[in-house]
Amino acid sequence: MTEGVSKKMEHANAVSPWVSFAYLVAGVCFILALRGLSSPRTSQRGNRFGMAGMAIAVVTTLVTHVPQQALGLVLTGPDGVIASTGPVLARLDTVTLLEILAAIAIGAVIGLVTARRIAMTAMPQLVAAFHSLVGLAAVLVAIAAFLNPVAFGIADIVTPMIGQPFAVINRVSRIEMILGVAIGALTFSGSVIAFLKLNGSMSGKPILLPQRHLLNAAVALAIVFFAFGFWSGQHAVDFWLVVALSFLIGFLLIIPIGGADMPVVVSMLNSYSGWAAAAMGFTLHNSAMIITGALVGSSGAILSYIMCRAMNRSFISVIAGGFGAVEGGGAAAATDRAWKRGSAEDAAFLMREAAQVVIVPGYGMAVAQAQHVLREMADKLKEAGVRVKYAIHPVAGRMPGHMNVLLAEANVPYDEVFELEDINAEFAQTDVTFVIGANDVTNPAAKTDKSSPIYGMPVLDVERAKTVLFVKRSMGGVGYAGVDNDVFYRDNTMMLLADAKKMVEEIVKALD
Amino acid sequence: MDFVSILSVFVLACFVGYYVVWSVTPALHTPLMAVTNAISSVIIVGALIAAAAAGAPGAKWLGLLGVVLASVNIFGGFAVTARMLAMYKKKDRPAGTVHK
């Protein structure tokens, strides 16, 4: 027993410099993976760096942690000569290795099938689901480390005068573990709620519990309290309470947040999954995990920041939730004002005569799956000699870059797609803006009306174009923020009221 | 490694992450999330250690389950990122999608 223990401690603690070096290489590969994303041209190579890094990390861990005899058996033992080196242990280790490989294979099949089948419009849900898996994996690893700390090299065996020897986990490791398990659990339950909301299995409307801020604060305090308890005494009950309460707070934090704030939530959970990995990396003294955790953590944090800036809202106010839950008076006033309705033929005529058309897609385009037919329309226009560009608001859709992926899926060349700040000045020289499935991100009230809930949000200046074609299902509905959009009633606006996909299909027909 | 050297790796990696992520083009923010997802599954290292260790059967099974979850993420994450990135094309389109 003691011999086995000391051997395992050796595996975890006295690692050869080559092992640390291998993990460092893996970490650098991950940095290069993100670096590749600076341009679509280099991005695929970046992704391959990421895969290579992961392969290095996994193989290094297997080689150092599955006891050597097992590998020796696999390499040399077709006819059972290994009997002299301890057959029982050797056979046991092969089983372990096979179990692990089977576990990887199961995960690989599920992952690859999902990745191949998933529709691009379902990408936000998929990412949320993947975040939940990272969170849960972090929780499982932390629990395993708690149950078998010696294997992780984070504990000393203390043999008391009376009774069994027991493992005392290092103080620092206790903090790292409890942080890892808490962030992991929060990431898991939060991502599950985000997944359900994005998937439509749960209403996207904010769910507001009474006294929710008080409740959240109480739960957070309790987590800190029990985490402190675990740090000081290594009591199992403190550990499990932190796990349970962290699951609870992840749930409580995400239910009050509405659908269109999901880009922030998804980015935030992305960040958390990174910090969870980093915390476990501290526990295991593993540089690959720490580097990755830091990369992913900052990536998610920066994306959250970009999303918040694009809505002119503070991170705190998004996380506090409840935005758009109270309907403004704007919705009722919607039908009182005069507006013009156009037909597909009108739209086709206007766009064919234009020198430049800018298409502004939003979440509605994703819902209607209109991206492919939209690209057909753009192709027809280009044949007619019209210059076509796409303008993307950072928070259009349900996750950062959502619209870009959908347009790329529909074969829209990425150099026709522009970000808000690159194209906003061009609307004044544009003949037709074609808004499809977007609303709040085009609302001029954000520039002029100080009382509007979206005041200060950077918006696309669609109304500066000679004509605005606004595809919308009906005049009744308002955007996520619950505010009326002045663009509907302008002289140069023509409303195209129909399902986004049907309307574009009709325009394509009319362009023939 | 002692705590301070680990902390230095962490802090420096945060700075690297900050600058690298700001250089990512906004058009690739969705693939960025997918790939960060895949690489954060490096947590599989911890799951593998738990799964390979003898002594505590409970921890071993949790480790194996963790390996399955992290593998879903690793294979799924990289595959879906590759699928997305393959869609981003420049104006000169490859044969097959030519203009009529």
TrEMBL record, chain A:
Q: State the name under which the record lists this protein.
A: NAD(P) transhydrogenase subunit beta
Specify the protein's topology with respect to the membrane.
Multi-pass membrane protein
Q: Where in the cell is it found?
A: Cell inner membrane
Annotated GO MF terms:
NADP binding; proton-translocating NAD(P)+ transhydrogenase activity
For the NADP transhydrogenase beta-like domain, which residue ranges apply? 20-509
Per the UniProt entry, the Enzyme Commission number(s) are 7.1.1.1
Q: What does this protein do?
A: The transhydrogenation between NADH and NADP is coupled to respiration and ATP hydrolysis and functions as a proton pump across the membrane.
Establish whether keyword Transferase is in the entry.
no
Q: How does it assemble?
A: Complex of an alpha and a beta chain; in Rhodospirillum, the alpha chain seems to be made of two subunits.
The record's catalysed reaction(s) read:
NAD(+) + NADPH + H(+)(in) = NADH + NADP(+) + H(+)(out)
Q: Where the protein is mainly located, per its record?
A: membrane
Which positions, given as ranges, span the membrane?
Answer: 20-37, 49-66, 95-115, 127-155, 175-194, 214-233, 239-257, 288-308
The record's listing under InterPro entries reads: DHS-like_NAD/FAD-binding_dom (IPR029035), NADH_DH_b (IPR012136), PNTB-like (IPR034300)
GO CC, any one term: plasma membrane
**UniProt similarity note:** Belongs to the PNT beta subunit family.
For this UniProt record, give its keywords in alphabetical order, as a comma-separated list.
Cell inner membrane, Cell membrane, Membrane, NAD, NADP, Translocase, Transmembrane, Transmembrane helix
Give the originating organism. Sphingomonas guangdongensis
What superkingdom does the record give? Bacteria
TrEMBL record, chain B:
Q: Which keywords has UniProt assigned to this entry?
A: Cell inner membrane, Cell membrane, Membrane, NAD, NADP, Translocase, Transmembrane, Transmembrane helix
Q: List, in alphabetical order, the Gene Ontology terms for molecular function in this entry.
A: NADP binding; proton-translocating NAD(P)+ transhydrogenase activity
> Does the keyword field hold Cell membrane?
yes
UniProt key word Plastid: no
Give start and end of each NAD(P) transhydrogenase alpha subunit C-terminal domain: 7-90
For this protein, the parts annotated as crossing the membrane are 6-25, 32-55, 61-86
State the reactions this protein catalyses: NAD(+) + NADPH + H(+)(in) = NADH + NADP(+) + H(+)(out)
Q: Where in the cell is it found?
A: Cell inner membrane
Q: What Pfam families does the record point to? A: PNTB_4TM (PF12769)
Give the top-rank taxon of the lineage listed in the UniProt record for this protein. Answer: Bacteria
InterPro entries found in the cross-reference section? NADP_transhyd_a_C
Q: Give its E.C. classification number.
A: 7.1.1.1
- EC class name: translocase
Topology with respect to the bilayer = Multi-pass membrane protein
Gene Ontology BP annotations: NADPH regeneration
List the record's Gene Ontology CC terms alphabetically: plasma membrane
What does this chain do? The transhydrogenation between NADH and NADP is coupled to respiration and ATP hydrolysis and functions as a proton pump across the membrane.
Q: What is this protein called?
A: proton-translocating NAD(P)(+) transhydrogenase
What species was this sequence derived from? Sphingomonas guangdongensis
Q: Upper taxonomic classification of the species?
A: Bacteria, Pseudomonadati, Pseudomonadota, Alphaproteobacteria, Sphingomonadales
